[in-house]
Amino acid sequence: MLTKRIIPCLDIKNGRTVKGINFESLCDAGDPVELAEFYSRSGADELVFLDITATEERRGTLVELVKNIAQKINIPFTVGGGISKISDVERLLRNGADKISVNSAAVKDPDLINRLSAKFGSQCIVVAIDAKKTEGIWKIHLSGGKIPTGKELFSWAKEVEERGAGEILFTSMDHDGTKNGFANEALAKMSEMLMIPVIASGGAGNISHFTDTFLKGKADAALAASVFHYGEIDINDLKKELKQNNIPVRI
């Protein structure tokens, strides 16, 4: 079994790390450069940076901030927010990103995934999917969850894989910030139907939630924010617990 990854996430607004509940009521969670440096030293396997208002504000990702973070860390670094063309990716990779994450732009122009994976390789391309259940069906939402679409989660996930994405970052909007656990049923279905890795996001509240998402949700990685930002879960303690549950992790 491949090693499972623990990934802190920096949601960025106005140059600061923020965290909310169900994509709303955002609160300040600290300086992103300081947090990134802390996570790099504290056992995180990777780091994700999401400029959550870039698409809504119709601008590019905060490149200077990405560069400052990249200089402070020595773990794989995924960057997303406002990426819609090859030149955006080139700029971010040049400034320290290892992988990029596309979301709204890929839904609006699915061929973007093909173009990016052909140019940079699938291993560089993460497709982020934000979805919530509407009348029992998981539906995709765009622009930080503000715009509902008619797209269904599982068919879009399969299309994303076929178009050349290297992995999927699935955030359940219903679980985001609730600390009630990940959307394991949806994660398990996605993991079973896809060949590429699936990152679980939305709902981490305690260590058992991570155990559940690897065992029940069959996730390849688990991403969380507030439980790490506010010191509620120590990454090394989390990994020790996972190892005791026979879940392979890098210690």
How would the blueprint of this fold be written?
Elements (H helix, E strand, L loop, with lengths): L4 E9 L2 E6 L2 E7 L1 H10 L5 E5 L11 H8 L6 E4 L5 H9 L4 E4 L1 H5 L2 H10 L4 E10 L2 E6 L4 E6 H10 L4 E6 L11 H10 L4 E4 L5 H9 L5 E4 L1 H4 L5 H10 L7
Parallel strand pairs: 1-4, 1-12, 4-5, 5-6, 6-7, 7-10, 10-11, 11-12
Antiparallel strand pairs: 1-2, 2-3, 7-8, 8-9
Describe the 3D structure.
The protein is α/β, with parallel strands linked by helices. The chain has a single domain (5-244), classed as TIM Barrel (Alpha-Beta Barrel), CATH 3.20.20.70. Helix content is 34%, strand content 28%. The protein is built from ten helices and twelve strands. It has helices at 32-41, 63-70, 86-94, 104-108, 111-120, 153-162, 184-193, 207-215, 226-229, 235-244, and strands spanning 5-13, 16-21, 24-30, 47-51, 77-80, 99-102, 125-134, 137-142, 147-152, 167-172, 198-201, 221-224. The radius of gyration is 16 Å and the shape is globular. It starts with a strand and ends in a 7-residue tail after the last helix.
